[in-house]
Amino acid sequence: MTDNTSQSVVSPAKRTRISPWSLGAILIAIVVLVPIVAVVWFALTPTENIWPHMLRTTLPRYLTNTAILMFSVGAMTAVIGTVTAWLVVMYEFPFRKILQWALLMPLAVPAYVGAYALVDFLEYAGPVQTAMREAAGWTNARDYWFPNIRTRGAAVIVLSAALYPYVYLLARAAFREQSGAAYEVARALGAGAFARFWRVGLPLARPAIAAGVAVVMMETVNDFGTVDYFAVQTLTTGIFSVWLQAGNLGGAAQLATCVLGLVIILVTLEKVSRRKSKFFSSARGQRPVAPAKLIGARAYAVTCVCALPVLIGFVLPVAVLLTHAFDAQEWFAPGLRKAIVHTITVGSIAACLTVLGGLFMVYGVRLSRKRLPALLMPVTAIGYAAPGAVLGLGILVPLAAFDNFLADRVVALGMPDPGLIFTGSAAALTLAYVVRFFAIGQGTADAALGRVSPSLPMAARSLGRSAGGTLRAVHLPLVKASIGSALLLVFVDCVKELPATLLLRPFSYDTLATRVHAKASLEDIAGAAPAALMITFVGLLAVSLLARANR
User: What whole-number distance in Å separates Cα of residue 178 and Cα of residue 289?
Assistant: First the structure.
């Protein structure tokens, strides 16, 4: 009787006790979500409400430019990514094996670097106009017409050339997974090449293409360096102007909330489109698509079509940067060395924290099986969709308030003023990177742990291993390759991130991205070239990893 009573008393306590893993997962989710909540709070409670003024003046222009950029870049990348993916999967042509991986290489070049290179190549003193004047004997710009380079249209071209690989990668995977039998039937029924693409291939690949276009449009909203260089006023540039120049936090937060709203709409539309488009194929006896061999002029025309995006998105920017880098004394500048150290330090710390935090959270949710952590885990991925300028706003102000509170408490105890501990160091920047790219670490950990057979950790636990011991002895050896890939991907994204870095870096704390932006803003492309080439090289490491994973 006594034993039964004690069991009835102890069991509910055990059931209601929160495990450290569950508690840790909840705390990580709170840290990731606080910046987003802070931005919404600042927007709803502005000290000086300039929203009516922005509605009458700048907001329509910001919204118009942002919408035009989003839909133009989305449409252009959809065409480029889908067509090139279709060609490399369905046809055999010269240099196909090289081009199917080269088409990913523009991902290594940030859009703002491509913008600087394009302007330098086409401006009045650039090689194109210089060659035109020498060939025709013109003496100045009044003797001939040349289109204005720094326009919204040029921004669309640069962003499309940098971002189309997102669509290409997903579309290529979708076309490769389709059954060759469907195309054989369509060919037997008299469908030509375009009809097979339009009626068979495109409908089956539409969900993947829509997902890629959604990512492209979110990256377009996030962009600051390109639109700022081309003087295109968007919601992101408006956040910088209203906050840093006008000094109005509430107005900047209201613009940031508009950006968040656009991102949420894009994510929702992408998910709805995938839900309404479901296609199934039989796994038994499915034949892969057999590429048709092209010969003659058609083969080389297809080669040119696939090579053109690579030339504009990768070869041209890298060639321009290399031309300036050979003559630059910037390689030996102390500022460049500091920027390299800062970039490696902050990027490495952020990558480790992001991946370890994602691994801890996923493992904690799987272990605890509590409802709240399981509900919070998908929500933490919103940081990847939130633009860097939005996160910078949501992190800097709360951290600055906490810094001041902490300093006041320390001084009240009779100790020296510690200054701004978080916002005066790289801690705020590191936190922004963690929040921004947490979805990569979490998603990789979730996929990797999902591939581990449940019997292995169960055997370890039955032999007396603790939860942490099981993670170290069983899971980590099996998922270390995936964890290493996630570390590299997060590090590369940290190196390329510009808006959040501009807002959160301490005074005189340059990274490679901010150094490129600062030099290029002063029209010093030669000074920006070394740092830009380093960013591109780091990006190529991620592209090579991506190519190997998608063979």
Answer: 7
